[in-house]
Amino acid sequence: MGGDPEMGLLPVLAGGTMEPMSRAALLPPVLLGLVILLLAQMAGLAVSALLGLPIPGVVLGLLLIVLLGVLRPTRAVVRAAEPAATPLLQHLQLLFVPPGVGILLELRTLAENALPLALAVGGSFVLALLISGLLLQTLLRRQDRRRGGADDQERATA
Amino acid sequence: MSALYELPVFGLALTLGVYLASHGMYHRLGRPGLLSPVLVCVVVIASVLQLTGMPYSLYLEQVALLTLLLGPATVALALPLLRHGKALLSSAPAVIAALVAGGVVSIGATVGAMVAFGADDALLRAALPRSVTSPVGLTIAEILQASVPMAVVLTLISGVLGAVVGPALLSLVRVRDERARGFAIGLTSHGIGTSRVLGESAVSGGWSSAAMVLNALAMTVTLPVVAHLVTG
Q1: How confident is the model at residue B232 (pLDDT cuts 50, 70, 90)?
Q2: Interface mutation vs chain A, best among B75, B111, B153, most A CBs within 10 Å
Q3: Which candidate from B147, B192, B220 shows the least CB-CB separation from A59?
Q4: Are the C-beta atoms of residues B54 and B5 closer than 8 Å to each other?
Q5: Is A106 within 8 Å of B45 when comparing Cβ atoms?
């Protein structure tokens, strides 16, 4: 932390074997990752606004990162985003505390509609959970049976 | 009292402090769904605001930093999909069928219950994104012009429900396949449920987080159309 950061990193560079990534490796990983995520978000927001798409910009940003991760030459970009992405996802819940606290202003609406809300949330939760779980299990079992043993091994390592 | 909460750092210090405490408690007590850190934080901080008379708008201003991080956190959801997507891709037809069936049932039951009780349109729109992981659900709520706090709280309740009773319900109907269990939980109770099934098995956790992101993508496209059809 203290002292000149470049001095601290120079020995790494001198003895390092990182050829093409050496410059990126000099950057603080969390900040570099955050910048990548922010740039993807900006690109998504810009495309969504410019083309007037009904899909929110952040979701386009998400899809952009998926695309970068699938294509071989750009995969390194996604790997570089990881040091910021991992803590953000680990503590994702923290980010919903502020909007969640806003329910204070709507406690009356919540209380007055408690029954329909409970049925809507509880009912749709239980039905969707059981139906998707049962359906997927049935289909996966049928698929496993059709593909036979070779595929089982592949799945075990996946 | 107002001298304290008018300090510009009060909101952030309070939020992070309560989060750290509830996070520690959650892990020490073996991850009980009801003590999900976000739930504890919302209750504690809302109580502090009530007791001190701090206006919500002021609190929101002080924690703008957290709100700002929501964007990159949403984009970061691409990583779990990339990591676990390969396993799901090899079973694409089954996964798509389960995704569609789950989505249709979920939307149908929500709309059905709300319309049957004559709840107003604004509330129906806030209830629609309840199965979607919060960062995307929040954006959907904004697009639907629904109340964001209401949508976030309903989503949170869904997540806690999934963590508390989800695995038991699945066992009850004999869904034992790790992949199907994870997928169903991720589809209905997003991150909070995923955190719970990760404790069950890594396969379930992977399928759960991939299902959560797939569901968010599908709902982003579907819900505005549904809201338009139902509430005009």
Answers
A1: low
A2: B75
A3: B220
A4: yes
A5: no
Q: Which residues of A touch B107 (CB under 8 A)?
A: 124
Q: How far does CA B219 lie from the centroid of its chain?
A: 13
B182 near B208, Cβ under 8 Å? Answer: yes
Please state, rounded to an integer, the average pLDDT across all residues of chain B: 87
Q: Chain B partners of A74 at a C-beta cutoff of 8 Å? A: none
Taking only the tens place, the pLDDT of each residue in B178-207 is 889 999 998 888 777 887 787 778 888 888
Q: Are B190 and B159 in contact (CB under 8 A)?
A: yes
Are the CB atoms for B216 and B101 separated by under 8 Å? no
∠ Cα A129 B209 B70 (to 5°):
110
**Partner residue opposite B130 with nearest CB, options A59, A110, A121:** A121
Give yes or no for residue B56 having a pLDDT over 60: yes
> Helices (DSSP H) in chain B: which residue ranges?
2-5, 10-28, 37-52, 56-62, 64-76, 78-89, 92-116, 121-127, 134-143, 148-172, 178-198, 202-231
Side chain identity, residue A150: A
> pLDDT tens across A30-65, in order?
999 999 999 999 999 999 899 988 788 888 999 999
Q: Where are the domains of chain A?
A: 1-90, 102-158
Please compute, for residue A155, the number of CA atoms within 13 A of its CA located in the half-sphere on the CB side.
20
pLDDT of residue A11: 42
